[in-house]
């Protein structure tokens, strides 16, 4: 069933794109051993270029939770404190350790991603002590975002789908991150084409872009 946006446009209920621009045919169904939980700040849910809506459907064992307070979701509070699981927060805090495959710990692994601006992500951590209590991990340095329609707030900043894809490829060598990123790449390229190369270069300072010809 399709949904209608506040502007009256009919959108796909899965990828949230206008029906004529639906990306669902590019979304895979991958099943890595690590479970992902994406906690999305409510302000991000209506963003036209939100990538969590492309990440979660591409993974059989991923979940999207739209909330500012986990207190409203006691079942998830219990899961995130369950010692039978290795729960980790992907967040570049001061105590964050670089993400590595599990060498000895054989517990099932759950990785929590925060979807929102840096300010909103920090607010989610501040408002939820359960997130503060979790082990924090970060991605290896040197990664470059392909999210060419946003000016990144700091070096190494990635979109939510890129962060999820990179994390899973670190944890599970051989994971097909390119399949997971396919709808994201199509989204960005489509938006640049609709914008026009001249306007794109003016707004984002791109001297050239191989994806736009």
TrEMBL record:
Pfam families given in the database record: DTW
Q: Does the keyword tRNA processing apply?
A: yes
The domain of life for this entry's organism is Bacteria
* Enzyme kind, highest EC tier: transferase
Keywords of this protein's UniProt record, alphabetized?
S-adenosyl-L-methionine, Transferase, tRNA processing
Task: Please state the Enzyme Commission number of this protein.
Answer: 2.5.1.25
The family note in this entry says: Belongs to the TDD superfamily. DTWD2 family.
Protein name, UniProt field: tRNA-uridine aminocarboxypropyltransferase
Query: Organism classification, top ranks?
Result: Bacteria, Pseudomonadati, Pseudomonadota, Gammaproteobacteria, Pseudomonadales
